[in-house]
Structure formats: structure tokens, C-alpha cells
């Protein structure tokens, strides 16, 4: 029977070697004739336990169906091509890894060679994991065709992926070697590996070790010199030490070498110029990937779903912008509160509740509590971990790291992934606001580009975002700064304040500046209003209200025995003849004064939530409810007044 300590080791083993959950490799140790085979399911804790106890031998596919990996491996099993009796030089490999300070852990392999594992703090794109492992293999002097796991960067719909045999089968076989070459028993080795995971910000510096050149002593040593100068004060001595350890023979020692070859070809050149100050140009792909349209349609491309119907899709980049202090944040908080509860917001619906991460770089900490109170009082507490707030005040030095820089970007991605683990769903990210979260140069597209690339990468990870931004000096010209900000965006909405004297409501016109993926009839301007009690509703603009007043006056004039000409009506009201003509046509078309299927929907967030559970009519018809204080009888009266008479009786009986 397995004791508690053994159970904990098995759990740790499962965590370290987490891979694809679609299949894994297995060989039954009791069957001496069977080869490894695939099991088409996720490996369980029992499978890992059986491996450690020797009943089976497991192989894990490092890549997931979505192209992610939590560990990678360089396969140093070059003994297959060596003469009989050859023994792998573990000591030399460990010395090289230690010298370069690479985050690789060396395990003895099943065939007597070595596997260099890169253990990661979370799942990263497999293409990035393979990329950095190739860089490390180059720096170690390995050939370009060395085997790297995961072997694929993406899995097709029918691809299984390649598995790699796991260490510690049956206990203390295929063991881990520490940097001194000591073989570590299972429990000690797994703890050693789990304490030495790395992340992208740590591994990215090693890209300098490979500058896309050939595997040649001079070129590889030059790359190390560039790396060493960037990271170490005694870089020149380190380059000399590298030459002795990594080059066989060292530069200056081959028969045809000049004795000063290292100095003249590398040290003098790197001494004069900081080659690391310019971004490395990665080798371009050798060909572009294309598909016949029929083949393209068979690829595993998922149709994105709406998080907010008719507005925000999964994996989308969005902007909400407007003047300072005119309701952008309030609008986004209202939308966020509806999103996390799966409630409608204005004329948008949320098919399911979706978690939200709201990153606030500006508000006083208590402002968030004050703004949250009405939603909590009206709709109750949101689901646990569905609405998370990151406020600048509670961060180190009261500052959220600039989202233009990798450190700030990684911290937000890390938090999104943490919240995803808590909720089982990908959070929707609000960044409020761009100016307070980054010091990028607003009119410089190159300065914006790192943020744009990051938002695009978040989309690649499956996260949607909404960036709150400001208008420029002229609010008619859209977002402030470079126009390239919206290049990758799906929806860009402008919030334009509607000032109404004496009103207790906050009113704003919503204008679509960009609406990729939406239909034309979904992008008409509308007016949103908020009562500061948690209720959002569609309202009328000041212009619409003025037009209604003109129409009411025209109705009275049209009741006269002698109806004046449109010109006289226009002169009396002080408006154009064209407007009079338009209003008269609307009056004749809708004599009761409202279009039952029109866009003038004034129904509160709270009412829709309560009554849509019971009254199908509220969903089937768009109608006007001029107040949020109606009781059920008054609500039904308002509904029936805008339904056709022949339908009204039937609908009433249903209710």
C-alpha cells in the first residue's frame, strides 16, 4: 500500500511532467514482447504511480492540443552513432551547462545517453519552447538536427504528437544528475527539479548565445562573447575559458590557426561594439505555409463564440475611448458586472457568466468599492473569483509595471492564467486606462508596437481584452495618438457624454469607430444611461428628445381644421421644411408615437433580469418602458400598448 510520502512524490512527478491530455505512451513491464503503445486519454495519477513503481513505463507527449508545453527536452542520445563500448560523457555535458548557467536538468536516458530537460513554471507556446531549446543546443555545440521535444509546434486534428520516455521508471533508474554529476534518488531528484523551474523572462537572455550562424568554432564563440559582454564584467576572461572548454581544438591551437586568433577575430571586435544592443534578427522561414481552401476548412480552426453577444468575441482586442472623466470607466464596470453574472447589459446578452480581470491604474482604491456597491446591492455577490481587481495602490512602490515592457506584460498574463485556473474559464481583461498603465510615446507607432504585439499574443493565448483610452484634442478624430493602435482591434467604441441639466442619470452616446465582425445593423449609435443604482438602460439623446417635442407640437397643429403648409409649420417651430416633412411621415407611420420594433428601447437592466425569467414577451418584442419603478400591472400595460391588438390577447393569456 502506498504511504503518504510516496503519494506526494507521485503528485509532484505528475505536476513536473505535465503534458498533453489527449494521449500518452505506455509499455506494460509484464509483457516482454509488446512495444510502446498510445493510450487515448489523459494520464492519471495512478498511471504516474504505476510508472514510478515499475508496473509500466510511461512516455508523455509534451505538447497539448492547443500547442502549449510545460517542459521541453534536448535528446543528447548520440551514442546510437558511436562505436561499440562508447560511453556518454556526462561530465563534459554538465560542465558546459554549468558554465553557461543554462536551466537544463540532465537525466540519464533509457538507452544510456542523456536527456536535458527544461522545466517551466507554466504552459508556454510549444514553438517558443522549441526555439529556445535549439538556441541552447547550438551553444552547447550540438548539431542543428539534434532531436528536440516537443517535436511539433502545433498538432493537427489527427496528430498524436511524439512522446518521450519518462525518468525514474521503477524507482531509481534513468536518474537525474546534479551539476556535480551526483546521481539523485527519486525523491531527492524530483525535489531538485521542481525547485529549479524557469520562465520566459529568465530563458530569453540565452537567445544571444545563437545568432543564426553555422556551428563553427569562431561563430559560436563570437555569439558567446556578445552574450558574456552583456551579462558579466569579466567577460573577456570568460570568453577565454569558453574557448578552452567548448572548442576542440580551441581557437589558436589548431595547426593552421594564428596563436592570436581569439584576440584578433573575436575579442577585439566585441570590445569595440555592443552587438547585443541591437535586436537579433531571427532567421526567416524558408517557406510560407498555404492551403487549398478545402484543406483549410478541414483544419482544426474553432469558430470564436461571443462573450457579449453582438459585441465582444472570444480572442478579441477591443477599445473603449472618450473624454476624461465622462463615463468610460463606469460603462466598463457596468459591462463587467453583467459579464461576470451572465446578465444582459443594455441590448447585449451574455450567454454564460464569464470571469473578468479589471486592471486599474488610476482610481483611488475606495472608488472601486463605491462603484461596486450598487451592483452588489441590486444583483448580489458575483461568483467566487469571477471579478478580480488589480489596483495600482496595492502594488510594489504603488506602481503597476509598464505594460509596454515585458515584465509588466508577463505579470498580467501570469495573473490571467491564475484566475483561469480558479474559474476554469478564460478571464476577459479590462485595462483602465492606457495612459496610466504605460509611458509609451502616444504618436509613435513604434513605441506602441510592443503593447499591440502583447495584446495580439494575449489573443493567441485565448484571452479577450478591452483597453480604455482617451480621445485626442479633437474628440471627433477618434482615439488619442497613433492610428496604428486599432490595427489589430475588433471593436472600438467611443463614449460621448450627453449633458442634460437637472437629470439624475449619467447619459452617454455610444458610437462605433470600428466594428470588425459585427453586422451594420449592430453598429448604430445609441444612448446609454445609468442611474447609479446598478441599472443601465437605453435612453434618448438630447436631439431625440427635442425631436419628440417637435413631433408632439406638429401633432397638435395637424389636428387643426385648416392645416397650415409645411413651410408655415417650419417657420412657426424654427426648423427646416425637410425636418417637418420627416416628422409628419413618422407620425403617419406610427400614430401611437412609438415603433414597437425600433431602436428606442428604454428598459432597465434590473427589469430585464427579473422579468425575462418569467415573461417571454420581453424577449420577443422591443418596447418602451419609461421608468424603472413600474409594477407588474403597469409593465404589462406598457407592453400591450405596443403590441398588435390581435396578438395582445393571446400574449396576455400566456402571461
Task: Report on the architecture of this protein.
It is a single chain. With 655 residues, the chain is of the alpha+beta class. The strands form four sheets. Strands 15-14-16-17-13-18-19-20-21 form a nine-stranded mixed sheet. A six-stranded antiparallel sheet has the order 7-4-6-5-9-10. Helix 7 crosses helix 9, helix 11 crosses helix 12 and helix 17 packs across helix 18. The protein is elongated.
Shape: elongated
From the N-terminal CA to the C-terminal CA, the straight-line distance is 63 Å
The main sheet orders its strands as 15-14-16-17-13-18-19-20-21
Class per helix and strand makeup? alpha+beta
Helical run tally: 22
Biggest sheet character: 9 strands, mixed
Rounded to an integer in angstroms, the radius of gyration calculated over CA atoms is 33 Å
Proportion of beta-strand residues: 15-25%
Overall strand count: 21
Query: Average pLDDT, to the nearest integer?
Result: 83
pLDDT < 50 stretches: 594-649, 651-655
The share of residues in helices is: 25-40%
Amino acid at each position: 500500500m502506498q504511504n503518504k510520502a510516496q503519494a506526494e512524490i507521485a503528485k509532484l512527478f505528475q505536476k513536473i511532467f505535465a503534458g498533453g491530455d489527449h494521449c500518452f505512451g505506455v509499455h506494460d513491464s509484464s509483457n516482454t514482447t509488446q512495444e510502446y503503445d498510445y493510450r487515448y486519454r489523459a494520464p492519471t495519477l495512478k498511471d504516474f504511480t504505476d510508472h514510478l513503481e515499475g508496473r509500466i513505463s510511461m512516455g508523455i507527449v509534451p505538447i497539448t492540443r492547443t500547442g502549449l508545453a510545460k517542459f521541453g527536452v534536448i535528446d543528447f542520445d548520440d551514442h546510437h552513432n558511436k562505436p561499440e563500448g562508447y560511453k556518454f560523457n556526462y561530465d563534459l555535458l554538465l560542465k558546459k551547462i554549468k558554465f553557461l548557467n543554462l536551466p537544463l536538468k540532465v537525466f540519464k536516458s533509457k538507452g544510456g545517453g542523456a536527456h536535458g530537460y527544461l522545466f517551466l513554471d507554466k504552459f508556454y507556446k510549444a514553438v517558443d519552447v522549441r526555439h529556445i531549446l535549439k538556441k541552447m543546443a547550438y551553444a552547447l555545440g550540438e548539431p542543428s538536427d539534434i532531436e528536440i521535444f516537443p517535436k511539433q509546434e502545433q498538432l493537427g486534428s489527427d496528430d498524436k504528437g511524439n512522446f518521450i520516455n519518462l525518468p525514474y521508471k521503477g524507482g531509481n533508474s534513468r536518474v537525474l544528475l546534479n551539476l556535480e554529476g551526483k546521481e539523485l534518488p527519486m525523491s531527492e531528484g524530483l525535489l531538485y527539479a521542481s525547485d529549479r523551474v524557469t520562465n520566459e523572462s529568465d530563458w530569453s537572455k540565452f537567445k544571444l548565445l545563437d545568432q543564426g550562424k553555422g556551428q563553427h568554432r569562431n561563430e559560436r564563440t563570437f555569439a558567446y562573447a556578445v552574450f558574456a559582454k552583456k551579462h558579466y564584467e569579466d567577460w573577456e576572461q570568460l570568453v577565454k575559458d569558453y574557448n578552452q572548454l567548448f572548442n576542440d581544438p580551441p581557437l589558436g591551437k589548431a595547426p593552421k590557426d594564428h596563436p592570436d586568433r581569439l584576440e584578433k577575430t573575436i575579442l577585439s571586435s566585441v570590445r569595440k561594439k555592443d552587438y547585443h544592443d541591437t535586436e537579433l534578427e531571427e532567421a526567416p522561414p524558408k517557406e510560407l505555409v498555404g492551403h487549398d481552401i478545402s484543406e483549410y476548412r478541414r483544419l482544426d480552426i474553432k469558430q470564436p463564440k461571443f462573450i457579449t453577444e453582438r459585441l465582444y468575441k472570444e480572442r478579441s482586442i477591443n477599445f473603449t475611448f472618450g473624454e476624461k472623466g465622462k463615463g468610460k470607466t463606469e460603462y466598463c464596470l457596468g459591462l463587467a458586472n453583467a459579464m461576470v453574472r451572465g446578465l444582459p447589459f443594455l441590448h447585449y446578452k451574455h450567454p454564460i457568466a464569464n470571469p473578468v480581470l479589471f486592471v486599474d491604474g488610476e482610481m483611488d482604491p475606495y472608488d472601486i468599492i463605491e462603484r461596486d456597491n450598487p451592483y452588489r446591492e441590486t444583483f448580489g455577490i458575483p461568483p467566487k473569483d469571477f471579478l478580480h481587481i488589480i489596483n495600482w495602490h496595492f502594488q510594489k512602490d504603488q506602481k503597476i509595471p509598464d505594460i509596454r515592457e515585458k515584465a509588466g506584460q508577463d505579470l498580467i498574463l501570469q495573473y490571467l492564467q491564475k484566475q483561469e485556473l480558479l474559474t476554469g474559464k478564460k478571464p476577459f481583461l479590462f485595462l483602465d486606462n492606457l495612459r496610466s498603465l504605460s509611458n509609451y510615446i502616444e504618436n509613435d507607432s513604434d513605441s506602441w508596437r510592443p503593447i499591440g504585439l502583447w495584446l495580439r499574443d494575449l489573443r493567441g493565448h485565448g484571452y479577450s481584452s478591452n483597453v480604455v483610452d482617451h480621445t485626442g484634442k479633437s474628440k471627433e478624430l477618434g482615439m488619442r495618438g497613433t492610428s496604428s493602435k486599432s490595427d489589430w482591434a475588433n471593436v472600438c467604441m467611443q463614449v460621448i457624454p450627453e449633458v442634460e441639466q437637472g437629470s439624475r442619470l449619467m447619459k452617454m452616446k455610444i458610437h462605433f469607430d470600428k466594428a470588425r465582425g459585427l453586422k451594420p445593423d449592430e453598429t448604430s449609435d445609441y444612448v446609454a444611461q445609468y442611474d447609479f443604482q446598478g441599472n443601465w438602460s437605453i435612453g434618448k439623446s438630447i436631439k431625440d428628445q427635442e425631436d419628440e417635442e417637435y413631433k408632439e407640437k406638429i401633432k397638435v397643429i395637424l389636428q387643426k381644421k385648416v392645416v397650415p403648409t409645411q413651410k408655415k409649420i417650419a417657420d412657426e417651430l424654427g426648423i427646416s421644411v425637410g425636418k417637418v416633412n420627416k416628422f409628419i411621415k413618422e407620425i403617419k407611420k406610427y400614430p401611437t408615437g412609438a415603433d414597437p420594433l425600433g431602436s428606442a428601447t428604454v428598459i432597465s437592466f434590473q427589469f430585464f433580469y427579473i422579468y425575462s425569467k418569467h415573461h417571454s414577451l420581453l424577449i420577443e418584442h422591443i418596447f418602451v418602458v419609461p421608468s424603472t419603478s413600474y409594477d407588474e400591472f403597469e409593465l404589462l400595460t406598457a407592453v400591450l400598448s405596443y403590441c398588435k391588438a390581435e396578438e395582445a390577447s393571446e400574449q396576455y393569456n400566456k402571461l
